[in-house]
């Protein structure tokens, strides 16, 4: 809930968009005004690219799903024996395809909307009151369309109105976001600049491990640059990258690199108790010089001001940095870091100053392979079948409850079944909590406004003034992190359903009550089905991703560059990105681990030990990368040690999955070698050994704390 850059502006934009939808809906008396206003919350993201993409894909699938519902209705309107099995089949397709398709979200939206409209056929058939005609401004001034339309025409009337509403909504969202939305390219540049300034602050303080700036940098380095990569992809799709997109991606890579090197500098000095003034008289010079260049690069990224002079750093910046790094030759612990800092800072300056003219050898190769339609792996297909079974069972139970109780107002329970399931119990519980919290908050806010403000409202301006505070709070939550954003969407939905009942004042509070009951019922059914049929623990996924990350690290340990003098090797960088993505997935999954009960959880350890273990593995990966990147004089002893280290990491990966052979894992740690003619790798192998001991120490502490749950 804390403020963040751009959050207030996005909140104001989202609130104004909802008010615009309200004005259009009330002025032209569109049916389902509450749904129309809520569409802005559902399809709007935190930047223009995300909003446009969601509007085109999500809204487009809803329009297509409406057409599919009409076709299904043409053949099954008078044949419930055909319609009900068809709904079951479509629900199975929704669960399976949303799990196995690369664009699974679109499949889920399409099938969900088709099934949801088909559930309304029974109501239309029995009551014929899908869309009402109005002869006045009050809620009593209504003529049910059953008075002048047949059930078939009534359902068609409703579907066509839904299609029109979504078409208008997605058009308005795209236009407003292009005119007012945040440009993801500018957001990316701001994030890149902020990270460089954070590194510069740490360097100005001498990279002291316990300084405030270094603690902030360490926290940012641990989280990685996955957010920047997402912004880069959005900026490319939004065509807001005026410069070379490959240069932008390379810049993100080296920003991550310099962050890790600065962090490792502080860690190395602390572990080896090195006095920086004794290590080299140029220590302050290289850190302060690098800090100045990084600050200059940060200004170039944001403002692209090529006129700022670099005379303070010398005419040949790269040569000056190499000279400062070479002075660390007597310090085998710091020399590799100084060399890497000098190289990375020089490349960052080149990429930020003239990205269109940068040396192509510094740029990653663009992968032109099309995205596969289906996710690879046999396990994915099995998970898809399980997801289809859970979803189908949940929908059938909720639909039967709604029909047998003759309570169509709780139809949101069916919608809940499609929205809540996330694949694992922890994620499902988190989504259910957000949905229930949003429904309760929006419903209570709606009841409060009906009791206090509705009796004194006489026009549209009064309605806007009453709704704006709640819409603003909902938009603020929606503009936050992914962990809470859905609660804002649900708060707005429940509030709009409670308040916008027709085109005049209302004192009906049953809608808010039924909305909450429907959500509660759907959540209970989903929870029971998810924990009964093929339950999936979030920690199972976390262990799998962590094992894959360690396996990738093992492969990185014995990697050999084709050209040792090249700035980087594409294959090596691909492995490093895969490792970073796996670590990010593990860290993200840990957040849902605490929401699982002990009966289903397969977590490694308690939350604090999990995060500590993950951080230790990340630090070990950086240390290994330093040794692998040492391009001078090959050594048989070093190569043999790296092979042994790879074997140990492979055993560690297997232990993460099976939990067997921990004592053998501890006893098989490779002994750091002593290489007489290579003091740098000698000391860095000892640093790697320290990193492994830190990992084993964390594992010992977790097991002695009895916080673990057996693998399974």
Shape: elongated
Radius of gyration: 29 Å
> How is the biggest beta sheet arranged?
2 strands, antiparallel
Mean pLDDT, all residues = 79
Low-confidence stretches: 707-712
Secondary-structure element string? HHHHHHEEHHHHHHHHHHHHHHHHHHHHH
N-end to C-end Cα span: 37 Å
Number of helices: 27
Number of domains: 3
Helicity range of the residues? over 70%
Q: DSSP strand (E) fraction?
A: under 5%
Structural class: mainly alpha
Organism: Gluconobacter kanchanaburiensis NBRC 103587
Membrane topology: Multi-pass membrane protein
GO molecular function: transmembrane transporter activity
Keywords: Cell membrane, Membrane, Transmembrane, Transmembrane helix, Transport
Write a structural description.
With 712 residues, the protein is mostly helical. It folds into three domains: 7-182 and 373-532, no CATH class; 184-237 and 245-362, Methane Monooxygenase Hydroxylase, Chain G, domain 1 (Up-down Bundle); 538-704, Up-down Bundle (Four Helix Bundle (Hemerythrin (Met), subunit A)). The chain has helices spanning 7-27, 33-43, 48-76, 80-100, 104-119, 121-127, 151-180, 184-204, 212-223, 226-237, 245-271, 276-279, 283-303, 317-326, 335-353, 378-404, 412-419, 425-452, 460-478, 485-499, 510-532, 538-557, 570-590, 607-628, 636-658, 662-667, 679-704, and strands spanning 133-134, 142-143. A two-stranded antiparallel sheet has the order 1-2. Strand 1 and strand 2 form a beta hairpin. Helix 4 packs antiparallel against helix 5 (104-119) and helix 8 (184-204) packs antiparallel against helix 10. The longest helix has 30 residues, at 151-180. It is elongated and about 95 Å long. Residues 707-712 have low confidence and may be disordered. It holds the Pfam family FUSC. InterPro entries: PHBA_efflux_AaeB/fusaric-R. GO terms for molecular function: transmembrane transporter activity.
């Amino acid at each position: 809930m804390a403020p963040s850059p751009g959050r207030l502006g996005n909140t104001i934009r989202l609130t104004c968009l909802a008010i615009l939808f309200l004005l259009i809906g009330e002025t032209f008396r569109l049916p389902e005004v509450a749904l129309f206003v809520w569409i802005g919350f559902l399809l709007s993201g935190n930047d223009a690219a995300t909003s446009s993409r969601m509007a085109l894909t999500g809204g487009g699938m809803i329009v297509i799903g409406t057409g599919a519902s009409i076709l299904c209705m043409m053949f099954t309107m008078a044949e419930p024996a055909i319609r009900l099995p068809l709904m079951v089949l479509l629900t199975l397709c929704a669960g399976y395809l949303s799990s196995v398709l690369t664009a699974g979200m679109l499949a889920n939206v399409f099938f969900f909307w088709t099934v949801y409209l088909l559930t309304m056929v029974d109501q239309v058939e029995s009551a014929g009151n899908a869309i009402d005609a109005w002869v006045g401004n009050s809620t009593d001034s209504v003529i049910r369309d059953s008075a002048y339309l047949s059930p078939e025409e009534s359902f068609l009337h409703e579907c066509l109105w839904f299609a029109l509403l979504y078409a208008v909504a997605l058009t308005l969202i795209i236009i407003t976001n292009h005119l007012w939305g945040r440009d993801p390219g500018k957001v990316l540049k701001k994030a890149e600049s902020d990270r460089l300034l954070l590194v510069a602050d740490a360097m100005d303080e001498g990279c002291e491990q316990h300084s405030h700036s270094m603690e902030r940098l360490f926290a940012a380095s641990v989280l990685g640059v996955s957010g920047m990569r997402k912004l880069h992809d959005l900026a490319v799709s939004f065509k807001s990258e005026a410069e070379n997109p490959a240069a932008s991606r390379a810049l993100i890579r080296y920003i991550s690199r310099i962050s890790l090197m600065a962090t490792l500098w502080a860690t190395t000095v602390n572990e080896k108790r090195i006095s920086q003034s004794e290590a080299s008289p140029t220590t302050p010079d290289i850190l302060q010089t690098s800090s100045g260049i990084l600050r200059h690069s940060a200004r170039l990224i944001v403002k692209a001001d090529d006129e700022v002079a670099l005379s303070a750093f010398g005419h040949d910046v790269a040569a000056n940095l190499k000279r400062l790094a070479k002075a660390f030759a007597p310090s085998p612990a710091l020399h590799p870091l100084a060399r890497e800092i000098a190289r990375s800072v020089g490349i960052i300056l080149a990429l930020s100053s003239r990205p269109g003219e940068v040396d192509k050898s510094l740029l990653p190769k663009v992968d032109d392979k099309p995205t596969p339609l289906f996710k690879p792996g046999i396990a994915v297909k099995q998970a898809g079948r399980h997801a289809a079974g859970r979803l189908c069972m949940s929908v059938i139970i909720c639909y039967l409850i709604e029909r047998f109780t003759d309570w169509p107002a709780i139809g949101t329970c069916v919608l809940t079944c499609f929205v809540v399931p996330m694949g694992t119990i922890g994620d499902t519980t988190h989504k259910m909590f957000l949905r229930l919290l949003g429904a309760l908050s929006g419903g209570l806010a709606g009841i409060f406004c009906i009791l206090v403000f509705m009796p004194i409202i006489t026009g549209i301006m009064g309605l806007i003034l009453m709704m704006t505070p709640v819409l603003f709070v909902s938009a603020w939550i929606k503009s936050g992190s992914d962990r809470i954003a859905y609660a804002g969407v649900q708060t707005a939905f429940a509030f709009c359903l409670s308040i916008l009942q027709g085109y005049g004042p209302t004192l009906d509070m049953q809608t808010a009550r039924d909305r909450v009951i429907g959500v509660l019922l759907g959540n209970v059914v989903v929870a029971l089905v998810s924990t009964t049929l093929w339950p999936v623990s979030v920690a199972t996924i976390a262990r799998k991703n962590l094992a894959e990350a360690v396996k990738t690290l093992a492969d990185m340990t014995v990697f050999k560059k084709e050209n040792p003098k090249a700035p980087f090797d594409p294959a090596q960088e691909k492995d490093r990105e895969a490792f970073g993505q796996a670590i990010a997935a593990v860290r993200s999954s840990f957040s849902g681990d605490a929401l699982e009960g002990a009966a289903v959880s397969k977590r490694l350890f308690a939350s604090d030990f999990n995060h500590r273990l993950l951080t230790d593995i990340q630090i070990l990966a950086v240390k290994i990368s330093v040794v692998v990147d040492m391009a001078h004089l090959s050594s048989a002893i070093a190569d043999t040690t790296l092979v042994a280290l790879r074997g140990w990491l492979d055993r560690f990966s297997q232990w993460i999955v099976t939990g067997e052979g921990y004592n053998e894992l501890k006893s098989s740690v490779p002994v750091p070698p002593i290489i007489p003619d290579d003091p740098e790798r000698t000391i860095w192998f000892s640093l790697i050994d320290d990193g492994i001991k830190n990992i084993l120490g964390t594992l010992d502490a977790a097991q002695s704390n009895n916080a673990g749950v057996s693998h399974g």
